[in-house]
Amino acid sequence: MIYVNGEPVQTPGRPTIRDVLVERGIDPETAGIAVAVDAEVARRGVWPTRTLDDGARVEIVRAVQGG
Amino acid sequence: MSTAPLRIAGRTFTSRLLLGTGGFTRMESLGDAIDASRTELVTVAMRRIDASAPGSLLDVIRDRGADVLPNTAGCFTARDAVLTAQLAREALGTDWVKLEVIGDERTLLPDATELLVAAEQLVDDGFVVLPYTSDDPVLARRLEDVGCAAVMPLGSPIGSGQGIANPANLTLIVEAAGVPVILDAGVGTASDAALAMELGCDAVLCASAISRATDPVAMSHALRHAVLAGVLARDAGRIPRRTHARASSPLAGMPEFAE
Predict the structure, then answer these.
(1) Cα of A9 to nearest chain B Cα, Å
(2) At what angle do helices B112-124 and B78-92 cross, to 10 degrees?
(3) pLDDT over threshold 70, residue B138
């Protein structure tokens, strides 16, 4: 089990960040998005290889209207 | 008639009006307001992605020729604000950030101590930090001391439209600042923005004043001209305030009429 944007997600094995994005219907090539894992930024370059441990907390963000 | 350009962290801006994107109900209206304002810097917030939401915000901003300035709105701790700025840098490819660390949900006033901690960490991490701060001249100086590229004191609480509640403090901030002073928060209408510039501010940021106006595009025009009018008036040198009247017509040469 990992948490993606606050929601618990059942995952087989240890998915990569890229796997999580694709699973949620987000094209990993999308410009303007960023990912944090356990309160640290995961740079775009590591998305295909960085695997997520059980209990990992993933936040996927993008720009919205504000300020 | 032109005015001197605004310089922040080595970048030059023709416009002295920054636009916030919060509160616009239509993307088309936001685009037209950007055009009408002539702004070159437009703020955005960072939030969880919603795959169902349209993703055109960045396109709208960039298509109108403006740059994106991410903020850390909604953060209540230095830790969250720093991480949000780092995510914005990763997502948007800019190391500029409008730093907000809020201390109170009801007033949305800044948390001074968390703000200063976050500002110092982000400066050390290579960011160009533009902090949203209270109208406290000492805090503004401390933010400049840790390396902020500008200071953004509030006129009054965010979205309140109360204008500049403490012009004396704002004047003290302007007098002491070695970095640009950008009035942030509280502007309700054109006269508030003009006053900010007359008091010596270098720029004004408007969001709700425009986005929540009955006609946002018309208000965007108005704010653009107000900022320009304010800076022109300041540079022109206003007359001193006097207690009593001072005739503008000559006293000599008055005709004397028959009884």
Answers:
(1) 16
(2) 40
(3) yes
**In whole numbers, what is the pLDDT of chain B averaged over residues?**
95
Largest CA distance in chain B: 88
Q: Are strands B41-48 and A57-65 parallel, antiparallel or unpaired?
A: antiparallel
Q: Is the pLDDT of residue B1 over 70?
A: no
Class of residue B207 by CB neighbours under 10 A (exposed 0-12, middle 13-18, buried 19+): buried
Yes or no, beta carbons of A67 and B47 under 8 Å apart: no
Tens of pLDDT along B50-65?
866 656 899 999 999 9
Instruction: Please indicate whether, in this complex, the C-beta atoms of A41 and B48 are within 8 angstroms of each other.
Output: no
- Rounded Cα distance between B7 and B178, Å, is 12
Please state the ipTM of this predicted complex. 0.94
CA separation for the pair B91, B44 (Å, rounded): 12
Q: Which among B89, B98, B142, B221 is annotated as catalytic?
A: B98
**Residues with Cβ < 8 Å from B172, sequence gap 6 or more?**
B137
Find all residues with CB under 8 Å of B11, minimum gap 6, and list them: none
Per-residue pLDDT tens over the stretch B90-104: 999 999 999 999 999
Distance from CA of A12 to the nearest CA of B (A): 22
Predicted confidence at residue A13, as pLDDT, reads 85
Name, in order, each residue with C-beta under 8 angstroms of B51's C-beta and a sequence gap of 6 or more: A24, A25, A26
Catalytic residue flag (residue B235): no
Quick check: B47 and A61 CB within 8 A? Answer: yes
Q: In chain A, which residue's Cα lies nearest the Cα of B159?
A: A67
Task: Output the CA–CA distances (angstroms, integers) from residue B40 to A57, B4, B16, B17, B97, in the order listed.
Answer: 36, 15, 9, 8, 15
- The pTM of the full predicted model, rounded to 2 decimals, is 0.91
